[in-house]
Amino acid sequence: MNKPWFDQYDSWVPQEIDADSYSSVVEMMLEAGERFQDRVAFSSFGATISYAEVLSLSRDFAAYLQNELGVRKGDRVALMAPNMMAFPIAMLGILRAGGVQVNVNPMYTERELEHQLNDADVETIVAFSGSTVTLADVIEHTSIKNIIVADLDDLLDIELPSPPVHDDLKSFVAFTDAIAAGSDMELSDVDLVGDDLIYLQYTGGTTGLSKGAMLTHRNLIANVLQFESFAGDYIKHGEDVVMTAIPMYHIFALMVNTLSYFKFGGTNVLITDPRKMPAFVAEWSKWKVSVFTGVNTLYNGLLHTPGFSELDFSSLGFSMGGGAPVQKAVSDKWKEVTGKHIKEGYGLSETSPVLTVNPFGMHDFKSSIGVPVPSTDISLRDDDGNEVAQGERGELCAKGPQVMKGYWRRDDATAESMTDDGYFCTGDIAIMDETGFFRIVDRKKDMILVSGFNVFPNEIEAEVAAMDGVLECACIGVPDEKSGEAVKVFIVKSDESLTREDVRAHCKERLTGYKVPDHIVFIDELPKSTVGKILRRELRDY
Question: Is residue 482 part of a domain?
């Protein structure tokens, strides 16, 4: 195929990659582990482990999962943890045992966690000790049989305190005990192929419940190779130091930081809580950081943290932004401080995630999501599914080896999201300019992006509508300097005593923090169409 964006490719970028270069992500990671065995793979709170140790520890954990818990190929195993040393070990162990990793946000509320565990039919969960309060509240309403608890200090031996396991969880195994037990067990190699599932990556649902994007080993291999071929020599194999502050349970950090830079022999510096900006800056100062990934709000937060501008950025090769639009003002300031603009990319959970990136050889900031990576076709379609003319608005639809297999047990949702000719419909409205660069101009769906996390209005509305005193409600996203967008809810009361504090308290119990409305407006009547559909777009004028 001959596409306009090929003219924008740097000289080293191929038009196609071979997504079948490896049989599985496990093969890819084991090969890298052998190649870079003496190099530091991960650092957490100042402690480090080598590539060889990652292979050894993950082997033992995989053996425990297989022999003690009976995990077999295709079984879903949940991993609910922030960026901590246990995460990559548990992840590779799950994959080596043949499991399908279900990535769980450790900040989920009871409702969100219960739905995800039940939807994925999870029997085994690896959970951060600090998340066991939520787990204890839902455990009886799920199919969970095996609980493995990981502490912040696991594999570090620096006597780092970790939150206690909730008293109501009586039957669990410590992560380090599981590894120790597995060291005396045999590991049976699992025959994994590209079409086998590797992750269930949950994303917001139109009915208020999230649905699992089925990502395969081939999907992730493809996206790693697409990123590698697109970046070229900007990747320093066996040398890079990558600052990993966005959570590894998020597909952006999971693919770019965790899988890609393990293949490349990089050292991942794990930041468990990037909200503690002074500590984050202090950790950065200890390393010759060459790669940084983040969302716009994270970049902005660092730029406003005392001491950050005094750091040594001479080794910084590039910074990559995703999850939400990168603001020009933030990128300009980042360039002023670090010497490099932020390189914006675009993707979704359903696409493993990267679809487009701005060329690495382009050093100026461009207000664009870039151009498609190799082996990726982008088609802009109108409401009837017809391709629009260049320069016109259309829904961004994508085809490539990184596009998901479908939604877990949701054939209806899968069918709705795909065109007849096999393109995934993203719900984002874009324009391609005369040079082949793409720019997002609107959203077909009413998704809200809060600090790079997807928030679906239907989910918020479902929770608010369940409150006593609420007649009806509607939710939209509004611009926010800190988070990019913020959640705003309009409510028609049926009880005049209802307060904003009541609504916020209810939402805090039922929704993860970034989904809780920042703005609550009481209104006499919601704007509606002639058939009674609430017109969210008209609410933007209120």
Answer: yes
